[in-house]
Amino acid sequence: MEMTQTTPAQASRPQSGARIGRNLTNLVFILPSVLLSLTIIGYPIFEVMRMAVSDVNRFGKIRGFEGLGNFLKVFQDPIFIQSSYQTLIWTVAVVGGTVLIAIPVAIILNEDFHGRSIARTIVLLPWAVSLAMTALVWRFVVNGDFGTLNLALTQLGLPFNNHPWLATAASAFTIEILVGILVSIPFTVTIFLGGLTSIPVTLYEAAAMDGATRWQSLTRITLPMLRPFLQIAIVLNVIYVFNSFPIIWIMTNGGPANGTDILITYVYKQAFAFGKLDVAAAASVLMFLVLLGFSVLYLFMTRQRGAAGQ
Amino acid sequence: MTRKAKRSALCWLGLSPLLIVVLFPYATMLSTALKRKDEIFQFETTWLPDSLYFGNFIELFANRGFGRALLNSLYISFGATLVSLAVALPAAYALSRLRVPGKGTFRTYLLVTQLISPIVLIVGLFRLFAYLGMINDLNALVFAHSAFYMAFAVWMLQSYFDTIPKDLEEAAWMDGASRLKSFRRVFLPLCLPGIAVTSLFTFVNSWNEYAMSLTILREGSLQTAPVKIAFLTGTLYETEWNIIMAATLVATVPVAIVFASIQSYLIRGLSLGGVK
Amino acid sequence: MSSIAIRNLTKSYGSVQVLHGIDLDIADEEFVVLVGPSGCGKSTLLRMIAGLEDITAGDLHIDGTRMNDVSPQKRDLAMVFQSYALYPHMTVAENMAFSLSLRGKQKSAIEREVGDAARILHLEDYLDRLPKSLSGGQRQRVAMGRAIVRHPKAFLFDEPLSNLDAKLRTHMRAEIKQLHQSLGATSVYVTHDQIEAMTLADRIVVMNAGRVEQVGTPLELFDRPRTRFVAGFIGAPAMNFFEGKVELNEQGKPHTHIGPSPVALPEGMESQAGAIVTVGLRPQHIPVSAASTDGNARVELVEQTGCETNLLLKLAGIDFTVQTRDRLEVNAGDAVNLEFDSRNMHVFDSNSGQRLN
């Protein structure tokens, strides 16, 4: 930029103006991403909220203002209450199980041993596979008549010939929770491995010089230093598991007798099986509020961590 | 036994229950996909098929339109990868290198988009694409996937960009390279690995997505591979598991190989910036 | 080659001002070193000359042309970075040829320039290697080569030797000096190492807290530091300081006290009786002799470097460092005699830090 050669005081003002101008033009770099997500994510949020307070027919036509009526309908639906309760069980069981398994697995995978990269690849493998296909394969594996689980158990001499795993809600839900854990482990292990590799080796060497046993350095160094990663893993997993749709949808479709329905399958059924778009939207808003709570928690935790890191 | 051999045995022993559970479905897939239909519904099921039978794969492509589903998936995944990269690259560059007003707000915004699940919004998404006349349009999924996977791409790219010293670009400027030239000749070649990993990750995510594809592509010929496979189940007693397992094998093995090849980068990428 | 003129240059980040009105003229072919403690603003000043930092206020002229708003690409300056900033995906030859090829020079001309630079820097055998397979010293040379091939208006060096080990640093220091003598290039060199500054510079700019403390030749700075800060910064081991009140004797000659004993001060000082002054004496300028029992100072520590002996002493509760080339037979706890010669004293106002003699 060509500037008039005048006194420094005069010259300095247009300069800083130019700098602010350049910072504003830098907005061009983030603008496309903002526009894309505002359209695809922002607008549907608005739509869901609008439908939640409207009377909507099964073809999506808004017939009038409904106020909180849809929410009232949701709360009066015993299946919604049942689904909420099952969502709680589902989320707590899957996240808890995932974290409990992922910590020792990550610690083992962080050790230096023969074939470690093969082991890592196998552990992370479920991440690469569509949840829909994982669910489908497991549905076949636990199939009572010709599933391979019963085949393997029978071959081990256990009395599981033709055991119908998905026939009762309790057993089906347990199986689904186990599959949920299995598919959540890779991401969680990845976070923990990232955390473990961030612990400097010299820390362990210093601890060894101070006389710490392997067990002591695990409990006194590794686990405390994993804490922030543990928090993040729990919150992110809660959000993902709370929203997890394909496993339950494909394995049991929420059945038998709504015994494995969670909120997300409840919403989907209301909208696309029963055509109650307004009720589905109201339930979505309720779920959205729960998620918002988790998000705020997540932001709070990352802020805190950022502050502690500086 | 050396110390390392002993440790290796212990580690594998400790991991073995999980490894078995992870690999069990693959054994199932493989064993079932290579069997004839009547062999599955036999009274006595076995692991090994009587003879290797590849008819399921032929059936899949010849009569079940699975080739079309794979093409649909490919189109969407390629498109979503390109679009999300196109918007995430400049955003990640700006976050890593430039002074942008509202940087912190943008980071928070990205987080929020990542925390909202597409399924909570499924009713709204359906309406959005209905307005746009894009129900039963593969491009709808291209944009939907790229919007939802963009945030992750920005994080991964930014964490990679942050590892490239700013000095290098400044040296290029001093050497007389314009901003665009230094980006193209110095910055871009150095971050190609990061871009490649991010692309593959986005591709795999898009390839595997189920709920949005299920909802927005309502016509059989437009279904993506995961949706198509789920539809093949039909009614409970007539489910042709041999065909389905052949299909899952075809749809998962290539992706699993790709994923395995970038797995170590994912750990690094996530630990550097993804979860920060 | 060119001259650089800096007028009242300031730099602020938001409300924090890091450079307060810098004035400096760098002549054609001159080698100027900016030196100071970390955080003094020397690197910021260099980066402002380079165009990598915005100029908040003031003017920068190169060859008489105002450069404030000219982008770094168009300033035609070469910079050697502390990290070397070698392009990791290019070979040594490509690294050096990069700027020339950007300018669209002919391939044969580029090859000749790169070949010449490689010969000067002893890099001929490494032209096809990637930077990661080079040693620290070789990388440093490539960074220099990248600057040389361009024949820029001026060279800018940002602590280029601080990543090398001590021996290599001394060696590269000499090479840079020789290079400057043969190329005669205007150079601005940033370092925190005062030995590097003393050995390399035609003129040294000592900076502290965003201000220029003094500009001068190495010997000017050593012999007549203008402020207490410069006195303490230049010279190793660092100058000794003690504080005292100026008194005048019957003949009107100034003196002060260390503990009970009077010490004569240089004549012709600009200070009044009763003023508080800081007196500086270089460790090399305090003659020391072994004393029987009644010496005025006590030895706390003896450091041998082979050539010299450094003694850390206490005199009237004040720490002194003395350097001598004599092989003294003293140990910690021994008494010694120190002499103070007013001709070697540097006297500063204790409040303003300005030189008084």
UniProtKB/TrEMBL annotation, chain A:
InterPro entries in the record: MetI-like (IPR000515), MetI-like_sf (IPR035906)
Residue ranges of the TM segments: 24-46, 88-109, 121-141, 165-193, 229-251, 279-300
Keyword Cell membrane appears in the UniProt entry: yes
Chief location category: membrane
Membrane topology recorded in Swiss-Prot or TrEMBL: Multi-pass membrane protein
Compartments in which it is found: Cell membrane
Domain named ABC transmembrane type-1: residues: 84-298
UniProt-listed Gene3D superfamilies: MetI-like
Keywords from the UniProt entry: Cell membrane, Membrane, Transmembrane, Transmembrane helix, Transport
Keyword NADP found: no
Family: Belongs to the binding-protein-dependent transport system permease family.
Protein name: Sugar ABC transporter permease
The organism of origin for this protein: Hoeflea poritis
TrEMBL record, chain B:
This protein's record includes keyword Transmembrane: yes
CDD domains: TM_PBP2 (cd06261)
Ranges annotated as spanning the membrane: 74-96, 108-132, 138-157, 186-204, 241-262
Classification via Pfam families: BPD_transp_1
InterPro entries per the UniProt record, alphabetical: BP-dep_ABC_trans_perm, MetI-like, MetI-like_sf
Highest taxon, organism lineage: Bacteria
Subcellular location: Cell membrane
Keywords for the protein's UniProt record, in alphabetical order: Cell membrane, Membrane, Transmembrane, Transmembrane helix, Transport
UniProt domain ABC transmembrane type-1: residue ranges: 70-262
Membrane keyword on record: yes
Lipid bilayer topology: Multi-pass membrane protein
Family: Belongs to the binding-protein-dependent transport system permease family.
Protein name per Swiss-Prot or TrEMBL: Carbohydrate ABC transporter permease
Organism: Hoeflea poritis
UniProtKB/TrEMBL annotation, chain C:
Pfam families registered for this protein in UniProt: ABC_tran, TOBE_2
InterPro entries per UniProt: AAA+_ATPase, ABC_transporter-like_ATP-bd, ABC_transporter-like_CS, ABC_transpr_MalK-like, ABC_transpr_MalK/UgpC-like, Mo/tungstate-bd_C_term_dom, NA-bd_OB-fold, P-loop_NTPase
Coiled coil: none
Keyword Acetylation: no
Molecular function as annotated in GO: ATP binding
Membrane topology category: Peripheral membrane protein
Domain ABC transporter: 4-234
Chief place where the protein resides: membrane
UniProt keyword annotations, A-Z: ATP-binding, Nucleotide-binding, Transport
Keyword Zinc-finger: no
Localization in the cell: Cell inner membrane
Family: Belongs to the ABC transporter superfamily.
Protein name: Sn-glycerol-3-phosphate ABC transporter ATP-binding protein UgpC
Natural source organism: Hoeflea poritis
